[in-house]
Amino acid sequence: MQLTDMEKAILDGSEGDARAHAMDLLVRYGKALGAERLVDTNNVCGGFVGALPGRRDLLPPVPAGEERDMDAVYSLLNLDSDRRLEIPPVKAMTYRLIDAMDPDKAEIQRVSAESQQVSRDVGKFCGKVGINQCNTCTPYQIGNVPVMGEHCAWMESSAVIYINSVIGARTNVEGAHSASAAALVGKIPYWGYHTLEGRRGTHLIEIDYPVESMLEWGLLGYWIGEKVKNEVPVLTGIHSPPNPNKLKHFGAAAASSGGVEMYHIVGVTPEARSIEDAFRDNPVKDKLRFGKAELEEAYSWFSTATDRDVDFVVIGCPHASLEQVRLVAQLLDGKKLSPSSNLWIFTPKALKAMADRVGYTKAIEAAGAHLMSDSCSALSKVYPEGVKVAATDSCKQAHYLPAILKFQTWLGSTEQCVNAALTGKWSGGLESHKDAGKLVAPGALQ
Ligand code: F3S
């Protein structure tokens, strides 16, 4: 791999052990991927492996009476170093992704005292080294919006596909180690979606159905991911341009079922002014058609639940926008959840503050539901006690809830899910979801 003099100097220790180790990690990673060089990045979104519930066993023990040695934790879990390194401030603008809990809802989320302490320790460390604690899977909803062509080093598949496709920024799906190393040295291997060649379309998807609602956009994404796996689909024939909420759900679903990291929608996304623009001389590997039958096929993949007694509704995967929170507040306003059900909505902390200000939180909580931040059920493994049957408006969450938390899971529109929480019964479905949409006030999403 070709390194600049400055990169070589960092590798040789000119900026200390931790940055030398981070550079070495990136060089080894880049060589394994066939990258010829590194590229500068000033935009990193990463995660703390030790902060997630499933990885707590990896945390080094804390000697009695002492504070957790977070430099040792970061060395081991984020930089893969058995040797304790003194961690310097980050060089690149770095945002932290999802946490294991919402500190304001720890009791409701049933988070142990030990886990709460880990979250506080990680938070303190973030402050020390300069990592912004956005604690959301949607940094682009709260101000971290890269510019077109900007090289980034982001984890979180739903965020990666969004900034690659909708914004035209450039990132691969990084892991905790590569993102953490990138934060320290401001470099990432130049390969994959950083290159123009890697961003070219591979499959043409002809849309032959008026895909409109959030649910339909999610199902379209899920179907495409299942068909093209980790390639680059190019969509034509869109009837009406989707808004950012729909693209968020579409991308998250495509990344869940198939590992899609980038797509083009002709006439909508910035690198697809035409079909030729999107493929840029790349041969079309396959042409697929998406119509009503394919929409129904995608919905059928989620139709595994049998018990209609819904005891948990999850909304906000990826984290909900303010408009989505507003919709739920409207649907719940003046009503009460069924005593046998729960409804949790996840949104970034910054948007929760705005929802508090305009009264959405009050309407939601008055109904017995909870507006939460920093976490999500599937990844943070937080849920009410005794849950057996869930409902969600997110294909991504519906993909993960049965696999990770073993819940039977219904998929429907936001209205159908809220209705399930109000009645304790599932009565939704693909056919009826547009009728439900008619109940929503003008300006809402569906
Ligand atoms: Fe976000 Fe991933 Fe959870 S998209 S809501 S962190 S499953």
From TrEMBL:
Gene3D superfamilies: Aconitase, domain 3
Keyword line: Iron, Lyase
Record bears the keyword Lyase: yes
Domain called Phosphomevalonate dehydratase large subunit-like: residue spans: 1-42, 100-419
Pfam families documented for this protein: AcnX
GO molecular function, one term: lyase activity
Entries under PANTHER family matching the protein: DUF521 DOMAIN PROTEIN (AFU_ORTHOLOGUE AFUA_6G00490) (PTHR36577)
Protein name, UniProt field: Predicted aconitase subunit 1
Source organism of the structure: Parasphingorhabdus marina DSM 22363
